[in-house]
Design a protein that fits this description.
The chain contains 4 helices and 9 strands, in the order βαβββαβββαββα. It has 157 residues and is α+β, with helices and mostly antiparallel strands.
């Protein structure tokens, strides 16, 4: 059994509708359980900034799917929402990223291959990821720094 923390975002069309639909589809997946959502927040775009604001949040869930299988499920949910990958970090109906994954013993999983990188390579620099993650995992520590300390540091920049 794995525990996943999945970043959720949308900035095209019915943003909350895309997120809610994908959430319910994930809840209904036979290999996924205990799907929980953080609050959803409105945020400014990151990276490519010439686009509409985002609705962002974080989901946690348990699953028997390994990280590559979970990625496949998340990509199918993005496709179901009509996701097109035209501009790197560009507008999207739905964006689902595995931010963190933990094994059954609670140890953080580290993966870096041509398909998947976990922990997500930019998560520690993005308040729109860390704020909802903090809501679901308030005691999280990464490289000796608590998530609360990291959010405080990012708010100063």
């Amino acid at each position: 059994m794995y525990t996943y923390y999945i970043s959720v975002g949308s900035n095209i069309g019915d943003k909350r509708g895309y997120i809610n639909s994908a959430f319910h589809l994930l809840q209904g997946h036979e290999a996924v359980s205990e799907v929980i959502s953080s609050s959803l927040i409105e945020t400014e775009p990151w990276g490519y900034t010439d686009q509409a604001s985002f609705i962002n949040g974080m989901w946690s869930c348990k699953s028997t799917l390994n990280p590559h299988e979970m990625l496949s499920v998340l990509q199918s949910l993005e496709q179901e929402a009509g996701r097109e990958r035209l501009i790197h970090w560009g507008p999207r109906t739905l964006d689902l990223d595995i931010i963190l994954a933990f094994d059954e013993a609670g140890s953080m999983i580290s993966i870096c291959d041509e398909i998947l990188t976990v922990p997500h390579p930019y998560f520690w620099d993005r308040t729109f990821v860390l704020e909802p993650l903090h809501e679901l995992l308030p005691t999280f520590t990464y490289k000796g720094v608590t998530i609360s300390e990291r959010l405080a540091t990012l708010s100063l920049t």
